[in-house]
Specification:
By secondary structure, the chain is α/β, with parallel strands linked by helices. It has a single domain, classed as TIM Barrel (Alpha-Beta Barrel), CATH 3.20.20.140. It is built from 16 helices and 8 strands. The chain has an 8-stranded parallel beta sheet. Strand 6, helix 10 and strand 7 form a beta-alpha-beta unit. The longest helix is centred in the middle third of the chain and has 19 residues. It is globular, with a radius of gyration of 18 Å. The structure holds hypoxanthine and zinc ion (ZN). The site of hypoxanthine has 11 residues, from helix 3.
Length: 329
């Protein structure tokens, strides 16, 4: 039985496995520029974040109908459950779909078909987090929040993703203020490729409660001290960092030093279909490459439930935390 954990950094579009991409392409009569799944997998050699994003957005063309989004999310939840994920907070990128003529309702209702059945079908509780693309305009983000208004009962929070450098958090001050006024939780990618200053800005200007990635905080000791003091969760994605070359190899990952410094780190999968593994695979990989002991792995699992948006169900959080403490390796 795998260690129980919460997944807090997972882009649902990044769970699109080549086999499902080709199946959806066939179902929707869409041609793909790769001959087969092997040829597509050959393209998964990324130089940086942008080279990944180019393929990530291109392959989304196969997602057209509510059922496509339902099938995508259900496939992810089945895999996540098999790797010990008990609770998943799932990002989606509506602007990438709206731009292709796929409506907000198609995306949210489709995802909800799978998420609404997840606890019964897979034993995984879920939350939905709507991300804004930071390389699109602030006005576009505001329009996206507006388009989501009919679906806010299904959306727990907002996030910020896509190409980081040159798109600082402050660009999105207004939409984050509007999201907060609507009662939405706030997170943002920061310090993946962007500088540590973006992490502080996300906290100060956007009022985020968690930082996605946050890896580059290690370059700024004062920022680390702040993150430790304020118990700001960081949703790290070790296999993603290797594939996108933000770290040279898994053995060089600063996770052990970050835990030693007292940072509230969690381990997540980001875009598992592209980066070589789901949540449990990431736990296994850091255990092997970094020699993390059972206490450290339990700490990571415990952190994931502490950092989860389960404030509306503290009894559930307590139950999950008890599962972590009772786990025998
Ligand atoms: N970083 C930024 N944006 C993203 C990512 C990521 O790793 N995955 C999907 N969108
Ligand atoms: Zn991400």
């Amino acid at each position: 039985m795998p260690l129980p954990k919460a997944e807090l950094h997972l882009h649902i579009e990044g769970t699109l496995e080549p086999e499902l991409a080709f199946a959806l392409a066939a179902r929707n009569g869409i041609g793909l520029p790769w001959a087969d799944t092997d040829a597509l997998r050959e393209a998964y050699r990324f130089a940086d974040l942008q080279s990944f994003l180019d393929l990530y957005y291109e392959l989304m063309a196969v997602l057209r109908t509510e059922q496509d989004f339902a099938d995508l999310a259900d496939a992810y939840l089945a895999r996540a459950a098999a790797q010990g994920v008990r609770h998943a907070e799932i990002f989606f990128d509506p602007q990438a779909h709206l731009a292709r003529g796929v409506g907000m309702g198609t995306v949210v209702e489709g995802l909800w078909r799978a998420l609404g059945a997840s606890e019964t079908r897979h034993g995984v509780t879920t939350r939905l987090i709507m991300c804004f693309l930071r390389d699109e305009s602030a006005a576009s983000a505001l329009e996206t929040l507006d388009a989501a208004r009919p679906y806010l009962d299904r959306i727990t929070g907002v996030g910020l993703d896509s190409a980081e450098v040159g798109h600082p958090p402050a660009k999105f001050r207004e939409v984050y203020e509007a999201a907060a006024a609507l009662g939405l939780r706030r997170v943002a990618h920061a310090g993946e490729e962007g500088p540590p200053a973006y992490i502080a800005e996300a906290l100060d200007v956007l009022g985020v409660e968690r930082i996605d990635h946050g890896l580059r905080c290690v370059e700024d000791p004062e920022l680390v001290a702040r993150l430790v003091r304020d118990r700001v969760p960081l949703t790290l994605c070790p296999l993603s960092n290797v594939r996108l070359r933000t770290v040279e190899s898994l053995g060089d990952h600063p996770l052990p030093a970050m835990l030693d410094a007292g940072l509230l780190c969690t381990v997540n999968s980001d875009d598992p279909a592209y980066f070589g593994g789901y949540a449990g695979d990431n736990f296994d990989a850091v255990r092997e490459a970094l020699g993390l002991g059972d206490d450290r792995l339990r700490e990571l699992a415990r952190n994931s439930f502490h950092a989860a948006f389960l404030d509306d169900d503290e009894a559930l959080r307590a139950r999950y935390l008890a599962e972590v403490e009772a786990y025998t390796f």
